[in-house]
Amino acid sequence: MPTSTSDKPAEKPARRSAGRPANSTITREAIVNVALDQLDRVGAHAFSVRDVARSLDVYPSTIYWHVESKEALLAEVASVVMTGAIPPRGSGDWKTWLRNLFKRYRKAVLKHPNVAQLLGAQMVSNASLSVDLIEGVIGVLLEAGATEDNLREAYNCVISAMTGFMTMELAPLPIDNPQDWAAALEGRVRSIDPLEHPTLTRHLHLLANKAFILRWQNGSQVPLNSSFNAHVEIFLAGLEAFLSQKIEE
Question: What's the pLDDT band for 1 if we cut at 50, 70, 90?
Fold first, then answer.
């Protein structure tokens, strides 16, 4: 006997796909831009996906529908900061290309000082895999005379030299009472005993607040421009000497 329409079970409403964001206007690009803005404001130590979601007026689950993890989001931020940092090939010799790479990287990071520590970590963990960067560095090293015997070492030195200076130049200051910390450190530097450390105190006027370990402000307030330029040229000279060495049998 046919069942009457009144006896049919009520149809269930269509369900959204699991995890799909209720606010479909939120884009991956918007999430990355807000994340970068938060890093600029509070630094990596205070960065949270929950605050990114709050800024976009969505639930954290919405963020995770677009990016699978906090680390993946930070990798996206690193990629955005690195946009334009890699010089095009064919613009000068290998030294010119590496010199431009270092300078363009520093320019990009100085726009977002709080990202300096993040970029180094991202490259160490391979979370932000810049294939163009790797291809470019390997290409110019081969042009410079690198061989299978020394290419790996030369490549690792390029990446560490590029990121290392900026990681130190823009090292974050203490979170708690940064003004008191800076004043206390300056006092300690200024009061170094000339009898115990005569060489240091004789040259302190050149180093105070302008040299690593002896500074109480980071590169956001006191950029180390001349030291960075020297770093690049010293590295290039050392790299050239290294690549010219004959490999011992």
Answer: very low
Among candidate residues 58, 59, 52, 61, the one with its CA nearest the CA of residue 33: 52
The structure tokens 């990355």 sit at: 32
Q: Is 32 helix (H, G, I), strand (E, B) or coil?
A: helix
Q: How many CB atoms lie within 10 A of CB 54?
A: 14
Judged by DSSP in three states, 15 sits in coil
Which candidate, 115, 127, 228, 122, places its Cα nearest to that of 172?
Answer: 115
**212: its two tokens:** 């690593």
Distance (Å, rounded) from C-alpha 36 to C-alpha 118? Answer: 11
DSSP state at residue 47: -
Could you identify the residue written with the tokens 């009520």? 10
Give the least confident one: 8-17, 22-31, 171-180, 201-210.
8-17
> Which pairs from 37-43 meet CB under 8 Å and 24+ separation?
39/77, 39/112, 39/114, 39/115, 39/118, 40/112, 40/114, 40/115, 42/114, 43/114, 43/172
CA distances from 203 to 77, 126, 128, 184, 208 (A): 41, 41, 41, 21, 9
Residues 6 or more apart in contact with residue 160 via CB below 8 angstroms = none
Q: How far is CA 12 from the centre of its chain?
A: 49
Is residue 179 scored above 70 in pLDDT?
A: yes
Contact 137, 80 (CB under 8 A): no
